[in-house]
Amino acid sequence: MYNYQEFDRAFVRERVEQYRDQVQRRLDGALTEDEFKPLRLMNGVYLQLHAYMLRIAIPYGTLSSRQMRQLAYIADKWDKGYGHFTTRQNIQFNWPRLVDTPDILDALADVDMHAIQTSGNTIRNVTTDQFAGAALDEVADPRPYAELIRQWSTDHPEFQFLPRKFKIAITGAVEDRAVIRAHDIGLQLVEHEGRIAFKVFVGGGLGRTPIIGQELVDRLPAEDLLPYLEAVLSVYNLAGRRDNKYKARIKITVSAMGIDAFRARVDEAFQRLRAAFNGQDLAVLGDIQKNFAPPHYVEKSQESYFDALDGDIGFREWVERNVSPHKLPSYASVTISLKGHGDTPGDATSDQMRAIADLAESFAHDELRISHEQNIVLPHVAQADLPIIYRTLKSIGLATANIGLISDIIACPGMDYCALATARSIPIAQDIALRYARREAEIGHMQIKISGCINACGHHHVGHVGILGLDKAGVENYQITLGGSAGNDAAIGEKMGRGFNVDELMPALDRLIDAYLALRLHEGETFAETVKRLGIVPFQEALYVVDQAA
Amino acid sequence: MARIKAPVVITANDLLTGEVVYLDPAHRWSPELSAAKVFNALDEAEGELAVAFSEAVVVGAYLAEVSNDAAVTPRHYRESFRHKGPSNYFHGKQAVQDTEVAA
After folding, report:
1. Distance CA A449, CA A343 (A)
2. pTM
3. Is the complex ipTM higher than 0.90?
């Protein structure tokens, strides 16, 4: 992974000291809240329902065990002993005191981390495939490019006050595990005539106006990445609306202008900007790539692994669900589920963080990833070590074998924490996970995604089943969408009809799932495939059969 | 958004800690809803809110509707969660209140 240079360290420390001074001036009364708010937000400090919240950047979801231990230390020393991993591959602490936040940022700087650009109308943390550098289906490792984008975009003087926030996702794999077409810019590494190029999508996004990103360029030579991104951002910076925050994202700019006209303006800007880069970006990329060399893989006897597969049903189920193929046949990638039945999706206690850090250090070449599905990944694990990893995870309550199943739910913090929420998300996820825990293997692959407001941090639009919590005349009410997809066939789900109150929601989901089990052709046909084959009507009828009977 | 109706309390977040607080009759900020001053007249509440909003020790003061029968209780579920804490598990304000009762 990327190792900070002296420049990076000096920059982060300087920002911490600036922020410490800003906090002190706020406490002294020299700054009003209106003056202070944008300053704290630039350092990831929000004010939520119950307390301040600190959002910390985990660049493209990659952590070392040392960094994970530091997060555990922060959770214990300044928060309530846990952290919340997010759909942006970041971590949030829900209970810091304002007066402690400069010390927390200092503690982060100790391990080369920060909270810069985790808020505000800037380019946010670049997200990527959680299996990057390990995936069997990978064309090229996207992390060096993600790091290049991080360095380019951090404190970029032209892009600190964009019309609205800006999210870039990048994948190097054939299967899109980074939801690239739901981002302002989505990048897919492809191979073309023996060279690496990018397929560039633009104008994707969820929120109140969900749009799947459109193809901007089919094959952008990899060496043109930064000047091309700068061209896209510069066009958006000028053409994006600033009069209405709900119309300010690039997806609205692209829709209003039309993709062809937008492309033409980008191409014009690109021609102008390209020369200015002068190859310096490629030199930096070369240095960055040295940090992402594959780990020193170790071949081990797999006897104990095969013995465990034969003799331990729990282990076998966990391998089937939570272990993914690695580009090296004797290795695998492990997804540690943060979705224990009844638990808060994405939460990990400080003890769990330390235990996972220990596993990464002992068995996974010291590397950890956070997935946008709010789980933790050990990307490089020798299959021989899977049994001991499973036993350790089981001992700390983290061996739930449910990746990709109905209980592996993305849920935003919702009204349990978030000041913007209109309804709760987490308790709905908890109820669903508990309700279907015994049936989830029978139900099979199903992605439920829950948002507690129209901003869609829980990605409900691209869930096979999307659930959106709203406030309907002072009562929590949940709308269901079907047919969404976050993968290569990215699609926005279709709203089914009237929303359900809390006491109606679980019976409605029961009817939906029973309908699917009755309608699927065979056990191997997933929920999404059945919906695609039959359309939404039979499922809509199942959801609203009560209304029709009335 | 529907116009707010009395009775109301004035609530905000504490500047230092972010904790939910309520304006009490002595014009101090209390973490307890039960200590809050209940305004039955909206005009009076809005007058005090203007003062409270500019106070340096809290952030984002606003009026919240309550019922004031046997006890002061929030009328909207959002304010109930602010008053008690998150509902996903037992922590936040409710745990602090529980500890204080036990002590």
Report:
1. 15
2. 0.96
3. yes
